[in-house]
Amino acid sequence: MIRHTVVFRLKHAPGSEAERDFLRAACELTKIDGVQKFECLRQTSPKNNFTFGLSMEFADSAAYAFYNDHPDHTAFVQGRWIPEVAEFMEIDYVPHAP
Question: What domain count does the chain have?
Fold first, then answer.
C-alpha cells in the first residue's frame, strides 16, 4: 500500500468561489481507477502555512504510477495545480514494520 499525501496553500482568497471550485476539481481525482480512501482535508494547525491537504491510498506502486500518469491527473496538475497553488509539500508513505 502507498499513501499519497499533499498539503498546500492556494493563491485564492479563503472562502472564495475560486477556492471552492479548485477543491471540487481536486475531488474529481477520486474517479481515477486505483484511487482508494480519498480525502480532501482542511489543515488546522498553526504550526505551518498550509491550509488544505489531499490524502489517498493505492494498492501498490503500479496503481500509483497509473494514477500519476493518468491524463485526468496530468491535466489537473498542468491546468489547475501549477497556476493556482501557492506552495505545497508532497509526502508518500508505505507501512513500516518495526
Answer: 1
Encode 20-57: b = buried (16+ Cβ within 10 Å), e = exposed: eebeeebeebeebebbeebeeeeeeeeeeebbbbbbbb
pTM: 0.91
CATH at residue 67: 3.30.70.100
Backbone angles phi, psi at 67, to 5 degrees: -60, -50
Residue 4 pLDDT greater than 90, yes or no? yes
Beta strands in the chain (DSSP E): 2-10, 36-42, 52-58, 85-93
Residue corresponding to grid cell 497553488: 85
